[in-house]
Recover the amino acids of this structure.
């Protein structure tokens, strides 16, 4: 074993513990959970295989259908509003605003908070008795109502509000960095071409931000699918199960309702949804870095 | 650089107005929590969430810290705050160190299949953690560290490796390979190059990595709720217990004080580190 | 009547003067080059002509109209940028016609004009591509197309060739010159490359420190530089500048040329109205050759021998470095010269082409016959 041989193997050796850990704790676990999804596990893992029965059962469950619908509503609104709001704030902040150094941290600080803290703050804010409803009523608008959080159909929108509050600053930071990376000469060319500000943004700048839209979308989609802490803190899935999301569904079915097989199945479905978005994205990013 | 500026001054005033309205939107929840944490319960229940306290009191803070009912014990959040610290510090340090070495290898010592390794590590950042809950619980049990702080440390280290590797790898990519070749010609070996050439210039990314890991691990709830028992709960879980208890009188002021206590460390880190925090966010979004 | 007039333009940026008293009158069809080192103010001046930067003092007139405070898009100008500034998300055709679109020109007409311009620049086959799919030279042409299609009063170029590699730069230079001859447009062109300036310009403005050092035709700038700065900036290799001590003897300026082998040669120049003192002699490398290379018909020359320090063969010429008056001086000799480093050679200094500069002010002293 020459010294040179050792030097060549050293990088791989150094990397292998991490690689082994990740292989076991991530991919091994994924396989195990996948395996469980094909068993009839209840409170404890069982080894009795039942084929795709769990998957069939899962998609027939009312609770699961509610979770998916909610994910669609929540995810769509959360991602959409964050993108629009983030872009708008970034464009505004980019206009040589005095006090930008103060505003930016204000928009961004919610990202530093745990979702539990966010949920706590907004839970009381949205509470009819002492929150927004009460404040507006105290201003004299005694007919004002804002009971969404207690309303079965509207509660999910409260989660959207809290989620947007938390994450839009981050999206803004991404767009701001992108705006700042735009070549100043393009602006000059557009001025000479006679583009108005609106046209400048609509036709030139915003299309140039496409990669950022993509990155932000991927991150937001990922966060939306994983959303667990926020729901637990804000509504605990309620009222009833009105704000159930796949993440809360998985937890409750696995650990509270003793339906481990179904829980594992729901986790696999979550994984596959995320993979469908992330894998193509990662692939194109890594391929792109090969070129440069 | 020329920036496009919207024309008339009326438009500009609208700009400032909109920005101001949104800063209020972002600040109000924090303000509400802060202000109401210094009020007595009657004052809260009588309404006026936005008003400053009539009777300023620190009692809610005392309660939140040392006497509030968490689960079955009236210990306040203090022991759980300590749990979080005991859990976060080793987890952050270990995962940062591992990430640095991994990043070094993946950016400077490319072996066959290294892209696959990086890809697999990268993907591990994105998995929904629900997928590992069941097997992890089992594994921790087998290892004998279920329901304990070391167990939680292990969990966070394992799932933090992906991100910290990403940070360091992207950072080291910017160092020209010639630097390594020159050092090799000078006779430096694998570890020497890392310690004497790359590490000394790694200040910024170490800070970014620590901030990102600290924030994420401190703020974690799911793992904390799944893998600890009552003595080893981190503060996020304890806070949720405090706040979501369905019995008895809802002491909003104590809840708010507790929430701020739980948020303080990451908020302070954020305020102090500012730019580094943003860098972490950007690097973590894989925008290479 | 001049087409583009810059009257007493000054610019102060954050209390620092960037441009001072710039006065230029450009005729229609002229190709004016603003040349100078980085920071001399040439790009700022160009941006002010374009309307992208404000004028602190002074006025700009285009075609008899005062455009000093008019917006860029209203000035009837077009600009080609150093980084081309093509809109990345639009096709070449869309890039070229964007300005027309902003002016409300109908689609058919836009496309027609685009096709015309594309033919002139030979980019017709690229019209549907995006800028990222083009080479540097192709992008350059698209940038020019965008400017051409506007058919403006004045074309502005901001170091358009700096991002190209050397060979492409030379090719594009020729193309720009051909285009100018063919279309007879009025051009203001900024560059730091003095060769570009010499080859392209009908007139050159040499700038330094926010001030125009000299404004004139290329031959004027080259053969009659106004001061030391212009003399040393233009020409490659640059003009040799030798410090000497001269005396006024009978109306003639006399000084000595000392070579490194100890020889001293006396030189007398007449036509100068000045006293003795310290001066700077300027002589271009091509006016300091060896016996083999020289044109034997020249009469007013100084012949001397000198040891040779360095020989730099450059293909069509060879540059030889010798010592004169203790200072290194470059001579241009024939490409196939046999001169050896460390050897000796016979040199010829063309005294008709010597310049005399005042050491303190840097101004060139006028000679009676020149």
């Amino acid at each position: 074993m020459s010294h040179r041989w050792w030097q060549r193997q050293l990088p791989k050796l150094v990397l292998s513990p991490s690689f082994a850990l990740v292989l076991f704790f991530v991919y091994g676990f994924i396989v195990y959970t996948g395996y469980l999804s094909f068993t009839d596990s209840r409170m404890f893992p069982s080894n009795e295989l039942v084929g795709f029965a769990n998957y069939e059962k899962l998609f027939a469950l009312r609770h699961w259908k509610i979770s998916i619908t909610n994910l669609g509503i929540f995810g769509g609104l959360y991602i959409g509003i964050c993108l629009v709001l983030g872009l708008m704030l970034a464009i505004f902040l980019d206009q040589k605003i005095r006090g930008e150094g103060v505003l930016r941290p204000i928009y961004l600080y919610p990202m530093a908070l745990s979702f539990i803290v966010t949920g706590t703050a907004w839970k009381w804010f949205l509470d009819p008795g002492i929150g927004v409803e009460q404040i507006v009523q105290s201003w004299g608008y005694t007919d004002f109502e804002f009971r969404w959080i207690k309303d079965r159909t509207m509660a999910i929108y409260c989660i959207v509000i809290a989620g947007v509050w938390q994450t839009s600053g981050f999206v803004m930071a991404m767009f701001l960095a992108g705006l700042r990376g735009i070549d100043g000469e393009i602006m000059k060319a557009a001025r000479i071409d006679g583009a108005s500000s609106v046209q400048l943004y609509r036709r030139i700048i915003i299309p140039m931000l496409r990669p950022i839209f993509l990155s932000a979308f991927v991150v937001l989609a990922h966060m939306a699918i994983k959303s667990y802490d926020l729901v637990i803190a804000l509504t605990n899935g309620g009222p009833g199960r009105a704000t159930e999301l796949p993440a809360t569904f998985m937890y409750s079915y696995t650990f509270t309702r003793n339906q481990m097989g179904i829980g594992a199945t729901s986790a696999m479905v979550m994984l596959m949804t995320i993979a469908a978005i992330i894998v193509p994205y990662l692939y194109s990013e890594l391929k792109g870095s090969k070129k440069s | 650089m020329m920036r496009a500026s919207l024309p008339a001054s009326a438009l500009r005033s609208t700009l400032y107005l909109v920005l101001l309205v949104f800063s209020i939107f972002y600040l109000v929840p924090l303000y509400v929590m802060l202000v109401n944490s210094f009020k007595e319960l009657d004052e809260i229940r009588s309404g006026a969430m936005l008003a400053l306290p009539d009777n300023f009191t620190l009692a809610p803070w005392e309660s939140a810290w040392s006497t509030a009912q968490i689960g079955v014990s009236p210990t306040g959040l203090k022991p759980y705050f300590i749990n979080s610290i005991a859990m976060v510090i080793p987890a952050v340090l270990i995962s940062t160190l591992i990430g640095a070495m991994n990043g070094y290898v993946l950016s400077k010592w490319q072996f066959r299949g290294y892209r696959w390794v990086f890809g697999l590590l990268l993907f591990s950042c994105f998995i929904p953690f629900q997928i590992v809950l069941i097997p992890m619980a089992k594994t921790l049990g087998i290892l004998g560290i279920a329901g304990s702080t070391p167990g939680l440390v292990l969990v966070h280290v394992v799932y933090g490796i992906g991100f910290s590797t990403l940070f360091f790898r992207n950072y080291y990519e910017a160092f020209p390979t010639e630097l390594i070749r020159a050092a090799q010609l000078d006779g430096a070996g694998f570890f020497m190059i890392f310690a004497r050439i790359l590490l000394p210039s790694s200040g910024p990314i170490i800070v970014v990595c620590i901030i990102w890991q600290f924030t994420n691990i401190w703020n974690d709830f799911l793992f904390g709720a799944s893998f600890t028992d009552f003595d080893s709960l981190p503060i996020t879980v304890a806070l949720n217990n405090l706040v979501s208890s369905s019995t008895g009188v809802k002491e909003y002021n104590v809840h708010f004080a507790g929430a701020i206590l739980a948020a303080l460390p990451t908020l302070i880190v954020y305020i102090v580190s500012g730019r580094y925090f943003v860098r972490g966010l950007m690097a973590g979004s894989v925008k290479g | 009547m001049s087409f583009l007039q810059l009257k007493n333009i000054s610019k102060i940026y954050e209390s620092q003067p960037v441009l001072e008293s710039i006065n230029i009158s450009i005729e229609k069809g002229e190709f004016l080059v603003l040349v100078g080192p980085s920071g001399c103010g040439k790009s700022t001046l160009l941006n002010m002509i374009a309307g992208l930067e404000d004028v602190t003092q002074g006025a700009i007139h285009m075609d008899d109209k005062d455009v000093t405070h008019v917006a860029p898009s209203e000035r009837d100008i077009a600009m080609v940028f150093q980084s081309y500034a093509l809109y990345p998300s639009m096709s070449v055709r869309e890039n070229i016609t964007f300005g027309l679109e902003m002016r409300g020109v109908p689609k058919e007409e836009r496309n027609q004009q685009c096709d015309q311009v594309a033919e002139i620049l030979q980019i017709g086959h690229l019209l549907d591509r995006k800028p990222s799919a083009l080479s540097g030279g192709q992008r350059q042409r698209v940038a020019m197309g965008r400017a051409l299609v506007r058919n403006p009063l004045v074309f502005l170029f901001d170091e358009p060739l700096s991002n190209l590699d050397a060979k492409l730069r030379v090719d594009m230079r020729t193309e720009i010159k051909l285009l100018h001859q063919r279309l007879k447009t009025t051009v203001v062109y900024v560059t730091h490359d003095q060769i570009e300036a010499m080859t392209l310009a009908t007139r050159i403005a040499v700038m330094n420190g926010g001030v125009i050092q000299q404004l004139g035709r290329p031959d004027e700038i080259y053969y009659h530089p106004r001061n030391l700065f212009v003399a040393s900036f233009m020409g490659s290799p640059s003009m040799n500048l030798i410090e000497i001590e001269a005396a006024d003897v009978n109306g003639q300026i006399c000084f000595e040329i000392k070579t490194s082998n100890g020889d001293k040669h006396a030189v007398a120049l007449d036509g100068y109205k000045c006293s003795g003192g310290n001066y700077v002699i300027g002589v271009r490398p091509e006016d300091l050759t060896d016996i083999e290379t020289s044109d034997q018909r020249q009469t007013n020359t100084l012949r001397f021998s000198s040891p040779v320090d360095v020989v730099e063969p450059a293909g069509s010429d060879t540059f030889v470095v010798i010592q004169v008056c203790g200072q290194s001086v470059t001579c241009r000799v024939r490409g196939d010269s046999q001169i050896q480093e460390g050897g000796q050679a016979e040199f010829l200094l063309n005294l008709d082409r010597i310049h005399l500069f005042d050491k303190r002010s840097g101004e060139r002293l006028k000679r009676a016959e020149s």
User: Anything to note?
Assistant: Chain B touches chain C through one residue (CB under 8 Å). The mean pLDDT of chain B is 85. Chain B has one domain: 78-284.
